[in-house]
């Protein structure tokens, strides 16, 4: 696929750049959702202190990675 050049000589991002951007956006959204859901679920089962921080961090990383992966796949399909 030829790269179209916009005004002022700007080129569009490549497909790999779009996939990376999709993963980054999905990871950020997943981390925010994981912070909310992880905090509530860990508090509900009675975690406190260091255990709470570990549980919330684990949930944030899991949801961020999952959502980021699906967003990257979606951006790959789009280009």
TrEMBL record:
GO terms for biological process: protein import into mitochondrial matrix; protein insertion into mitochondrial inner membrane. The chain crosses the membrane at residues 23-43. Keywords: Membrane, Transmembrane, Transmembrane helix. It is found in: Membrane. GO terms for cellular component: TIM23 mitochondrial import inner membrane translocase complex. It comes from the Eukaryota. This is Reactive oxygen species modulator 1. It comes from Callipepla squamata.
